[in-house]
Amino acid sequence: MKSYSLLLLFGLLSVCAWSQQTITASLTHDGKDRNYILYVPEIYSADTPTPLVLNFHGYTSNANDQMWYGDFRAIADTAGFLVVHPQGSLLNGATHWNVGGWTLGSTTDDVGFTAALLDELSNNYNIDQKRIYSTGMSNGGFMSFLLACQLSDRVAAIASVTGSMTPETYTSCSPQHPTPIMQIHGVVDGVVPYFGASWTRSISDVLAYWRDYNNCSTELIKTDVPNTNLLDASSASYQVYLNGDNQSTVEHFRISGGGHTWPGSFPSPGTNQDFNASLEIWRFFSRYDLDGLRGITSVNDQSALEATVDIFPNPTTGLLTIEALQAVGSPYRLHSIHGQLMQTGILQQERAELDLSKLPKGIYILSLGNMGFKIIKGE
Fold first, then answer.
1. Rounded to 5 degrees, what are φ and ψ at 325?
2. Residue 175 burial (C-beta neighbours within 10 Å; 0-12, 13-18, 19+)
3. Residue 301 CB: number of other CB atoms within 10 A?
4. Among 124, 186, 316, 319, which one is least packed by beta carbons within 10 Å?
């Protein structure tokens, strides 16, 4: 396989002062020139293994549009990961990713192209090989599921926005490790139907497949996302299956009134603005590597995991202290016993304090990573 890239010059520089860069480059795979756009944040260091996010565009779209529409660049600037936006090839004059089924007639090996792209970037940048993730819009979401099935030895977790699994991907899926999955989808999506069709599996089928494969709990935990924007004509709920092998989860943002759009992106009909899909996806990705939940040495032992977390005082009348060394980087959510989301964030250090003083007296549920704790708030 012959390849070339505008990145070669940068790959020769093992130690240098990087500035923020957006690089358009190409490689040759199966005799075809394939393009991509790479975003390198200013804080990238060639001395530090760095996570990589694959961000696939939708059918008929392109890498540049996806870079702006499903935008991770501002997040990468502070979190320190690379983002690559591959460019699909043409099928009957339209850009596409060959995911089988409705891409009938395509002979493009996009899984092979992705593997070659990962090799190319790994040769030129210090990529953390355990922290490669895939996301995408619509056809790009289908592509991310295909990678979870056929390139899972290199992809730690995936997130699909308005995509799904083709019947062909669904029936021939062969992942090599428990794979954390996030699905973001509008119920009234008129392009990729939420409830499925002959050419695409329903979202409930997709969630059930990965729940069962990951050996998650069958209990579905649901929390309403605060409806902070009343002008978008939609609302969202966050749903999750917990406690999978290697502490994997299957997570879903279900958007009532949501269409075929990327939440938090440019305002348009059917675009939910109550949460930012890119931010939620990175929060999700950041918890995992190829071995499962990051920082956990006994990933199959839930009791051992919970023993590393100390939460006090409980009951509390105000401040709640969380000490959890191995859960640093994990998201937390505090919701009422009735499911109302009260607080959310990411545990940035091993000791953190939550101010519950303004909450009414009662029982709350604290979700930390894949763990759940009952919190009692007194007067």
1. -55, -45
2. middle
3. 12
4. 319
**CA–CA separation, 108 and 110 (whole Å):** 6
Q: What is the largest CA-CA distance in the chain?
A: 70
pLDDT at 150 (0 to 100): 98
Q: Are residues 202 and 311 in the same domain?
A: no
Q: Is the dihedral of CA 269, 273, 278, 283 positive or negative?
A: negative
Range of the domain at 358: 302-377
Q: Domain boundary residue among 293, 321, 356?
A: 293
Tell me the two tokens of residue 320. 């709640």
Residue 237: beta bridge partners? Answer: 224, 254
Q: Are 277 and 236 in contact (CB under 8 A)?
A: no
The Cα–Cα gap between 287 and 205 comes to 25
Q: Is residue 228 part of a domain?
A: yes
Q: Is 61 helix (H, G, I), strand (E, B) or coil?
A: coil
In a domain, 1, yes or no: no
Q: Are residues 24 and 162 in the same domain?
A: yes
pLDDT at residue number 361: 83
pLDDT at res. 296? 44
323 and 363 in a single domain? The answer is yes
Distance between CA 58 and CA 64 in Å, rounded? 11
- The C-alpha atoms of residue 276 and residue 262 are separated, in whole angstroms, by 8
List the end-to-end C-alpha distance of the chain, in Å, as a whole number: 68
Low-confidence ranges of the chain (pLDDT < 50): 1-17, 296-305
Q: Is residue 253 part of a domain?
A: yes
pLDDT at residue 159, rounded to an integer: 98
CB-CB contact of 56 with 140 (8 Å)? yes
Count up the domains in the chain and report the number. Answer: 2
**pLDDT at position 339:** 64
DSSP annotation of 163 reads -
Residues 223, 372, single domain; the answer is: no
Structure tokens of 135?
């996301």
Choose the final residue of a domain: 248, 274, 293.
Answer: 293
